[in-house]
Write a structure and sequence with these properties.
single chain, 227 residues, Rossmann fold
Length: 227
Amino acid sequence: QWRLSPKAMRQLGQAALRDVAQQLSGRHGERATRRAGAAGELTGATRPWAFGDTEPWNVTRTLTNTVLRRAGTGDPDGPLRIAVEDVEVSETETRTQAAVALLVDTSFSMVMENRWLPMKRTALALHHLVSTRFRSDALQIIAFGRYARTVTAAELTGLEGVYEQGTNLHHALALAARHLRRHPNAQPVVLVVTDGEPTAHLEDYTGNGGGSSVFFDYPPHPRTIAH
């Protein structure tokens, strides 16, 4: 059995992300809050340095404080030495940690409608983006057809289409909810890659991501939509 190396997976993710990026606008996006923190874009504000700060020094403000302090001592021609009280740091926007559930439709309709490879490219691009740009986020990939299950990026890459009826978004969302509950302090993010409407749901749902049987109907049954 052939398996992709981590390097090959990164290269696939990079290529997929480039393909997707070419089809999107070039806008820059971040999950920023209104609080100042240790990551993200500069806010333009500065504040005195305090022990434990990791923000970058604001050199202009720091040197200005040093010059003014020295001038106030009556010795403007003395050596320029920066004191701790002179140092100011540039505030940046903090970025919240997120719990990300990436739900990928692997139902057979994706194969029949020639969406199997585009689905994988999109999913790998999103996985690569989160894994490299937002490394502190908790990411889980969930593949769903008749049933849903968690998979790795490598497993998704090698996944082959299997004929089975059902697009069980209900089960996928249940697994996503379980993943989000494991990270109660993180910002919840659910991304869904699918080609259509849900056509299946779990019967006898246990509330912990499982059920004893699957109900299928097409067009989508009102019971499935209600779930």
